């Protein structure tokens, strides 16, 4: 399926350039619409027929589904392309952690606390989990409902995981108004689950392990009955069968994006937790395999993943991979250039230099903070490129550094005229000295050694 262009949109706009949308022209508005940076409702001159045409044109190949409400709301889906280099992916894969309803109360509460407290910062972004998947392991509808009630105060939305319509209804009576994700409808309980989804206005997962043709039939039946908030689970087969799982995920997404098959235009859900649920003997092996499957499915279009492990060593690689996947590959990740202060700086403090590539900056920041260094850090605008790349591309040179020194006001803050440049920038030391008039010291290649370098030299 070809990507919708600004010209495709422009052809259906009134082309009056009225400016009511806040843009200078209809073409400018069309560009914003095609890039998902504006809302069609801002166009006040569209008639109903044109609005519907444009709305259908702009709707993503994979429908966006809302899970949770208010401050717990999460959106999944919305993808337009198969390959990330074509366009950025928009709504991050949600990570939900399995929570059995048969745990002792203290263990149940402790697991909730653990799930909610898992977070860490990377390149200026706080990475954390997204949802709790309450599983009816007890097979007791009343116990399931009691557990659901305890989760009403959780800071995360809840997935209700049971194939029993009676248990699902009991839980929905308690928590249904929060748009919990229902998991799951199968060929055996489809109509009962469908009625509950309609009654409580909750998104419904269709579970058809290893059989996407049957999944299509189930989805068609749901759509025919007015249910359109659907999530697809084609099954997560582990071990040697993981290849079949990938085939089903890829085929489902291709049918949605390339063929616009209405029965596949929904978010995909995987359950890497099955590795642990099926075999709990070797925690390290299972945790490693769970993280591997989660990463693999995330790379192959999973919009939701249900996990079981909560060890940080397992979650860090998954969370950091997600962060990388959901940045725009066409735009370097950068921080604002200028002066940054660390520790107790004064007029005699050292001055460091680095680039505004986000990963470089936050690595340097972390090393300076952990080493309790007191220093000024000059951040050069290299349009988000790392030191070596910026040098090769011409963004990091003596003139650029001299312009930064002049504009940022560092010379008003320090008496010294000594600058520590990155080890990778050593070939530019003479050029920087000539352009800035400062003495240049070549620092370590690895920023973790900078605090000790400062202690030794200053």
UniProtKB/TrEMBL annotation:
Cofactor(s) demanded: [4Fe-4S] cluster; corrinoid
Biological process, per Gene Ontology: acetyl-CoA catabolic process; methylation
Manner of cofactor binding, per the entry note: Binds 1 [4Fe-4S] cluster.
Functional summary from the UniProt entry: Part of a complex that catalyzes the reversible cleavage of acetyl-CoA, allowing autotrophic growth from CO(2).
Binding site for [4Fe-4S] cluster: 18, 21, 26, 43
Entry keyword Iron: yes
Domain of life: Archaea
InterPro entries: 4Fe-4S_dom (IPR007202), Ac-CoA_synth_d_su_TIM-brl (IPR016041), ACDS_complex_subunit (IPR051069), AcylCoA_decarb/synth_gsu (IPR016218), AcylCoA_decarb/synth_gsu_arc (IPR023427), Dihydropteroate_synth-like_sf (IPR011005)
Description of how the protein assembles with itself and partners: Heterodimer of delta and gamma chains. The ACDS complex is made up of alpha, epsilon, beta, gamma and delta chains with a probable stoichiometry of (alpha(2)epsilon(2))(4)-beta(8)-(gamma(1)delta(1))(8).
Keywords, comma-separated and alphabetical: 4Fe-4S, Cobalt, Iron, Iron-sulfur, Metal-binding, Methyltransferase, Transferase
Catalytic reactions of this protein: 5,6,7,8-tetrahydrosarcinapterin + methyl-Co(III)-[corrinoid Fe-S protein] = 5-methyltetrahydrosarcinapterin + Co(I)-[corrinoid Fe-S protein] + H(+)
Keyword Cell wall biogenesis/degradation annotated: no
E.C. code: 2.1.1.245
EC class (word): transferase
Native source species: Candidatus Methanobinarius endosymbioticus
Residues involved in 5-methoxybenzimidazolylcob(I)amide binding: 354, 360, 384-387, 447
Family matches, as Gene3D superfamilies: 3.40.50.11600, Dihydropteroate synthase-like
Domain 4Fe-4S: from-to ranges: 1-60
Name of the protein: Acetyl-CoA decarbonylase/synthase complex subunit gamma
Molecular function via GO: 4 iron, 4 sulfur cluster binding; iron ion binding; methyltransferase activity
